[in-house]
Amino acid sequence: MKAFTYEKPRTAAEAAASAASHPGAKFVAGGTNLLDLMKLEIEAPPHLIDVNGLEFDKIEKLPSGGLRIGALVRNTDLAAHETIRRDYGVLTRALVAGATGQLRNMATTAGNLLQRTRCPYFYDSYQACNKREPGSGCGARDGYNRQHAIIGASESCIATHPSDMAVAMRLLDAEVETIRPDGSTRTIPIADFHRLPGDAPQTDTILAAGELITAVVLPPPLGGVHLYRKVRDRASFAFALISVAAVIQKDGSGRVALGGVAHRPWRVEAAEALLPKGAKAVVEVLLAGARPTPENEFKVKLVERTLRSVLAEAKQAQS
């Protein structure tokens, strides 16, 4: 790990101002991903801004009927929150499907959204990786790519986004609230928050340098049956081969989002209109234009079968 300086500001404004005065600085909270990357020297921020002292650890009901989730709410607390379990069950299910209990005790809402890919070529500094070192190439494209993207990828990068929580947030149409180094704030629809790789895969989100997430806002509850199905190579502590998040209403309408198939949580609203026609019809639109590799073409059929199972479970729950 390379040397760095450290501070722990008392307010969001102080944190934002510090980011402005320390180019390349990183915010740290749970550190469950960043510290691993620093140990491997994949990330080498010259300055760390510890935001754990900021008052972003609350879940508040909004007059609109939605919820504001502070950026520092731990994954365990979010999953167990009474309102989340009752009204946003897909989020609880996605959270408990991720990582281990120990990691969920440390991981935060904002940090989860900012997780970097688990592509093995990204973590191996002896391999080519445009995400780690722009212009070096993509070892995964002609290498081991069973777990990689089948849609939304580019010639530069076929990595997937690893978060389970972000898939549920995308399904729910969450919004991300931030403060920028100049003190101004903005609200970002989560549909726009994560980037596709294009020719700049080193940039995962649309956050500006030094921009700090302060909260995530959920709209009013959708009702319906909430399900999250994660398919992985072992029963626990493994990232998704694919995952399906769904909210299904009694009339068969609903929403669907996927994890493990793209550089960001994958949702195509036009596909959801086909839910009453079944999984095959939905997946034909949801994954239209997919370009799997020979090693991961199984994911296309796996998505369809998993969605079919999810729809059957929803129907049974409503009968």
UniProtKB/TrEMBL annotation:
A Pfam short name: FAD_binding_5
Domain of life where this protein originates: Bacteria
Keywords: FAD, Flavoprotein
Tagged with keyword Ribonucleoprotein: no
Record InterPro entries: CO_DH_flav_C, CO_DH_flav_C_dom_sf, Diverse_Substr_Oxidored, FAD-bd_PCMH, FAD-bd_PCMH-like_sf, FAD-bd_PCMH_sub1, FAD-bd_PCMH_sub2, Mopterin_DH_FAD-bd
FAD-binding PCMH-type domain location: 1-223
Keyword Flavoprotein on entry: yes
PROSITE patterns membership: FAD_PCMH
Name of protein: Xanthine dehydrogenase family protein subunit M
Protein's organism: Luteolibacter flavescens
